[in-house]
Each structure stands twice: as C-alpha cells, then as structure tokens.
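Changelog-linked ticket: zinc ion example.
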Amino acid sequence: MGPLISALVQLQSIELDLTNLRRRKRVKDNAVNAQQAKINQHTEQLESVRANSMERRKRSDELDLDLRASEEHVEKLRVDLNSAKTNKEYATLLTQINSLRADNAKVEDEGLKVIAEIEALKQQITELEALIAEEGKKLTIVQDSSKDEIAKLDTMIADLTVKRDDSAGKIPPKSLAIFDRIASNYDGEAMAQVEVSGRKQPYSYSCGGCYMSLNAEHANALKSHDAIRQCDNCKRILYMDETA
Ligand SMILES: [Zn+2]
C-alpha cells in the first residue's frame, strides 16, 4: 500500500471513530430533548386548559350579571303588578313576569353547568401542574446523568477532530475532496477493502462496502499504483489489505 492509500486508510479509521462518538453523543442529546419535548407538550396543554378556564369564568360572570339585571326587572314588574289598574294590565304583567322567570331559570341552569365546568378545569390544571413538576424532576435527572457523559464525548470528539485534521493535512486536496464527499454519503465510511476469494488464480474480487463483484483490473492497479480507484457501484475508495 503506497503513502496516499495508507494515509486515506488512516483517515478513514479516525473518521469512523468520530462518527461513532457523534452517534453516542446524539443518543445522549436525544434523551434530554425527548424529556424536554414531553414537558413542552404538557405545558402547551396546560396553557390551553387555562385559557378555556378563563373563558368559562368570563361566561359565568356574564350570566351572573344577566341574571341580576333580569331579577331586578322582575322586582320592578311585581311592584307594577300590585298597582295594576285593570285586569288586562294585570294579566299582561303576570305573563311578562312568568316569561322572565322561565328565562332566569334557564340562565341559572347554564350558570350551574359553567361552574361545574370550571371546577373540572381547575382539577385538570392541578393535575397538569403536578405532572409538569414531576417530569421536570425527571428532566433534571436525565440532564445530570447525561452531562458528564456529554462533556466526556465532547472532549473525545475535539481531540479526535485535531487528529483527523492532522491526518487530512497529509492528503492532497483533490484526493481529500473525493474522500470527504464519499464519507458524507456513507457515515464516514469512504473506503472499502477489496475482498479476494478463490484459492488460486484467477481470483475473484468484490467490494467490501457494497459486496458487488469487482473487475480484476482494480486489484491489479491497486497493487502497482498508489492512486485512488473507486468501486464502480458504490464509489467507495478501494484499498487492498496486502497481508491477506
Ligand atoms: Zn462498492
């Protein structure tokens, strides 16, 4: 293996370690984020229940006012009733009073219903507040347990990134650009080892990345030239393990 291909193999090894560390960090971050998302969802729900409760309270106040005004009206009509001069006047007032009382009974019924709704919403608010407090405690636990691990992973990622940059610096820019492009397509796995099978010539070759068979020309060229050759199928950069 020439200096270019062996530098690429070294870079690939660092790149895979980095990908692995980033994945481990993502798992930790996700645990924290998932718990936070749960809390956000309950908080949104709480806000909606609170808004509903506020609206119901407003309705309850409106009904109270309506009822009071209507009762005052009834009181006034009763005074008029006592001083009615004709039977007709008396009958008309009585009809008005009865009609108003029937309306008031309806308003009272709705008022009672609204008060029951407010009570139920109050209960929901208490329950949601307790739930949010409990989930908040869990979030603290998840954050605390993840904090050290995340800090450790961050340090490892920073150290390895320095190594990666150092290793990448040894590779000509054009070759590095090819490596980076393929690495980004395959989670850091830019290289594939050429797999050799068969006991004697002619051997058959396949790509260790995508398992498609490879032309013997690739293997022969890799043995004699220190240059980038890519799998025809997956485009990974090929290398041969010469000890095999
Ligand atoms: Zn391939």
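Closing comment: Example verified and attached. The pocket of zinc ion is lined by residues 192, 207, 209-210, 212, 231, 233-234, 236 (CB under 6 Å). The helical segments are 3-82, 87-168, 173-185, 216-224.
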